[in-house]
Amino acid sequence: MMIQPLPAIADALPAARPLVDRYGRHISYLRISVTDRCDYRCVYCMAEDMTFLPKRDILTFEEIDSITAAFVARGVSKLRLTGGEPLVRRDIMELVKTLGRHLRGNGLQELTMTTNGSQLRKYAGALADAGVRRLNVSLDTLDPDRFKAITRRGRIEDVFAGIDAALEAKLAIKINMVAMRGTNDDEIETMMAWAHGKGMGLTLIEGMPLGEVGIDRVDSYLPLRELHDQLSRRYTLEKLDQRTGGPARYVRVAETGGVLGFITPMSHNFCESCNRVRLTATGQLFMCLGQDDQVNLRDALRDGGHDELDAALDRAMLLKPKGHDFVIDRARPQPALGRHMSVTGG
Ligand code: SAM
Ligand code: SF4
């Protein structure tokens, strides 16, 4: 499918006014879930039987591009495509190429993607050609059987082949690993040695209580402070000043020379410096992964065009909450929020 050339929306909008919320936080980072569908069913992310969003409600590529342009005109400089699995959306490369044009002196500094890697072998070269320089690839284990059990269907060889193709295409890779007690906590050091040995970063993530899924979140929850302390007994962890405006902190492991990240939304959330908002595949803008406040950008665009869209961004800034209130404990066995991570994008 070809995307029709769009008018220069950024030019049509009022003079750029940065997006600043009630707490003085500048919004410079937009994550877009381009689909809530996925070829995997990771146990911490989805249920086995998922009801996906109706296709007719999904934003078209033109609409995603219009919304992106409106954000870029208001100072957003970083864009991440996620999902669901972004690479299973049909003709996804048309969208990536179109969004890539915002990189060429048009305000956007970085276009990235989070992927499960299953289709990466096919797309790595095209992603690099479109201006993508970095990818996050999610992989929670190096063991094929364990991988199949966690994803409920994946073939680890596909992900390995995808990673190799991406490295070949000179894409920088960070591996995202959700740390789960009793499932993969015995593999942290092996994963680190493997990732660092291939010149990739490894980022550990705390499981978050989003949606009904296939595991007991209380049993599997592993506070990363615990892992950090364990690792610091065996390795020299040198603090890095890389800040992403999110709940991630990075160290360099002196022994491997590689970068290790800790994403701790549960145990330490860093909401005070949050710089991001999230767009769902149907055009709902969520101001926080852990809260329900949202603005419908699809209706704003469809009903009122670019002026209404711009006004909706101002409304969104008034709604961004101070922080989330995720809790994982036995007294609150329900997920903190009914929606799955695949809706708002990880
Ligand atoms: N399908 C792509 C992938 O897996 O990389 C992109 C979407 S996925 C929702 C983005 C990231 O969120 C992945 O790294 C995944 O491991 C993580 N994730 C999903 N559900 C999570 C949860 N409940 N808690 C913490 N991380 C989660
Ligand atoms: Fe799919 Fe990514 Fe969720 Fe796994 S984490 S089910 S790969 S969206």
Quick synopsis:
The chain contains eleven helices and twelve strands.
User: Can you list the strand order of the major beta sheet?
Assistant: 7-8-9-6-5-4-3-2-1-10-11-12
Q: What is the N-to-C succession of helices and strands?
A: HEHEHEHEHHEHEHHEEEEEEHH
Terminus-to-terminus distance? 27 Å
> Given the structure, what is the number of helices?
11
Q: Note poorly predicted spans.
A: 1-15
Rg (CA only): 19 Å
- Strand residue content: 15-25%
Helical/strand content category:
alpha/beta
- E-strand count: 12
| Rough outline | globular
Instruction: Supply the CATH architecture of the domain at 7-11 and 26-174 and 272-344.
Output: Alpha-Beta Barrel
- Name the CATH homologous superfamily of the domain at 7-11 and 26-174 and 272-344: Aldolase class I
CATH topology of the domain at 7-11 and 26-174 and 272-344: TIM Barrel
Bound molecules: S-adenosylmethionine, iron/sulfur cluster
Average per-residue pLDDT, rounded, comes to: 89
Structure description:
The chain has 346 residues and is an alpha/beta fold. The protein has a domain of 227 residues: Aldolase class I (TIM Barrel, Alpha-Beta Barrel), CATH 3.20.20.70. Helices cover 32% and strands 17% of the residues. The protein has a 12-stranded mixed beta sheet. Helix 2 runs parallel beside helix 3 and helix 4 runs parallel beside helix 6. The protein is globular. The N terminus is likely disordered. The site of iron/sulfur cluster has 12 residues, from loops.
